[in-house]
Amino acid sequence: MAVEKRVVFRSRWLPWLLLAPQGVVIGVFFFWPAAQALLQSLQQTDAFGSSVEWVGLDNFRALWNDPKYLASFETTAVFSVLVAGLGIVLSLLLAVFADRVVRGATLYKTLLIWPYAVAPAVAGVLWLFMFSPSIGIASYWLHALGISWNSLLNSTHAMVLIVMAAVWKQISYNFLFFLAGLASIPKSLIEAAAIDGAHPWRRFWTIQLPLLSPTTFFLLVINVVYAFLETFAIVDAATQGGPGTDTSILVYKLVYDFKALDLGASAAQSVVLMLILIVLTVVQFKYVEKKVNY
Questions:
Q1: Mean residue pLDDT across the chain
Q2: CA-to-CA distance for 118 and 123, rounded, in angstroms?
Q3: Residues above pLDDT 70, as percent of the chain
Q4: Cα torsion angle, 69, 74, 79, 81, sign
Q5: Axis crossing angle, helix 213-229 with helix 250-259, rounded to the nearest 10
Q6: Helices (H), the chain
Q7: Nearest 5°: phi and psi at 53?
Q8: What value does the mean pLDDT take over residues 180-193?
């Protein structure tokens, strides 16, 4: 029988002392900015910060009466579902293929990791140039196929453009975790299934995918947060929220209003965005995690 080993500290203050540095970092870089955002969302401040007026929930009421802000909810929902879903599925597919490569495996894996080193703004500009209606090589191929591509005027094309850029930017991160998860699966299980006559698809569906569920759940949480918070630079570089405001996701509108020095509205939007992410994370841990096989 395995004996449980527990560490006993001689001083009751030593554990708290060891936790103190991390607690200070969390307090300074998370709780303090969150508290400041909550306070500022209940105030109206001028552009120079010299005049502060307590307005209570007026900033939030103004948001709910703003049709552009309400429209950004739907835009963000579509964008985040596509980015998280496509990013996870494509990276899993690439990881499965990379796990089976024998010759040139190192080169193949290295090429798939490279996009993660590209800054989000650079990724947005790169895809913007490739799909530029006038000089883009990708739009030229599409025109040759009879598809009239113009992300500057067509809302659907603009959404597809930022989704592709965001997925491409994040796919390397997902790929690394899936590749590590596949490497941790005992090869004896795969070989035993192959001897029993299970074809590759059945081996993947019944053995590899269930064992990858912890990795998939982790990446689902990370990709949702990424789609909500870390894609501003991609949207700003590729479409600037256009055409009109059809690709203005929540984080883009937040930063746009902050740059316009509407501090109260931007603070209220940051609080709403924070609450949305907290709710989504809690829902994922409460319902999705039940299907994870640890």
A1: 89
A2: 6
A3: 96
A4: positive
A5: 30
A6: 14-26, 32-40, 58-64, 67-100, 105-113, 120-130, 137-144, 155-184, 187-195, 200-203, 209-211, 213-229, 232-238, 250-259, 263-283
A7: -125, 130
A8: 87
